[in-house]
Amino acid sequence: MRERLLSALDDSDTLTHPASKRGFLVYLMGPYKSYPPYESPRPAAEVPTDRGTLDEVADRVRDGLDLDADDALALLVALRRDLRADTGVNAFLATDPGIPLSEVDAATQSIAFADAATATVFVAPAMGDNLGVGIEVGSVCEHLDDDTLLTDAVFLGERGVESSMVDAVAARWHVTVDEFDGYDDLYRAVRVHLRAVA
Fold first, then answer.
1. pLDDT digits (tens, 9 = 90+) for 63-81
2. Which of 3, 13, 20, 31 has its CA 20 to 30 A from that of 81?
3. What is the C-alpha to C-alpha distance for residues 94 and 109, in angstroms, rounded to an integer?
4. For domain 2-13+24-34+45-197, is the CATH number 3.10.350?
């Protein structure tokens, strides 16, 4: 899978850093959709978050980003773009290699991508619809060896995101879990993790 990823991601026009590391694959996982609007007001206890977006992401993802997408997906695309351009790592989303789901199902792809990547970053913004991400994170963690999870994976949740799955990521699989406030804080946390992996 690693060679297939390197081949599929080779023509990235944003992997332009002078010290680009084509072989440093960074798999970015997170929600592609924000929470859907509710048809009627819901009790506060049932509302998953009291913030609709990251404090700092709205302007940043629209600045030079030609993307008609939900804010949650735009956040991941911006993170991928900035990591490629400013850090030189070969960051990618699950959709980037273009492997059809009819060939390899989504869960199997995520496991294979995380296994082939140099580093895996789970991102859980408060605005994100994180149910699918929680399932995917559990599936990936269950299939990777403990040493890989301990050294190569990180789970970054926006402050205020709470979940039993987040607790399990740290307790069961010993993945580093940390919080972030806004896009700049997230970006710094990812770069710190990548330096540690390198």
1. 544 444 577 888 898 899 8
2. 3
3. 8
4. no
